[in-house]
Amino acid sequence: MIVESFAIIAIIFAMAFIFLRAGKKTYAYGILPLLLLPVMQICMKYITGFLTSFLPFSAINIKVCIIFITLIVACILMGFTGSKLNKTGGRTMYLIICGLFTLVLAMIFVLDTLRPLI
Predict the structure, then answer these.
(1) Backbone region of residue 97 per phi and psi (left: phi > 0; alpha: psi in -120 to 50; beta: other values)
(2) pLDDT tens digits, residue range 79-96?
């Protein structure tokens, strides 16, 4: 899932660049929390290797916990950036769409992590 994570990061950066070029700084900053899960997926191997050295859990358990912690942090950041949007309807749609994207991506990463156990 490393290649897919790089692709997601490239697409989100391209979207942020397009928003910046259009003069929509709030929207450009609003989609940056979507980067947390793919970036964490790329760094997961190194973080898990470090944490398994002193935690009594398996690497798969640590990876799943890191994914869910990253999901929570991303949703909190989306709440902060969503509060800066002017329209209430736009804020609601932003939170629903970005939240669903992040949730689905987290579930895909969890299923990919648990694939060796199936």
Answers:
(1) alpha
(2) 898 888 777 777 888 889
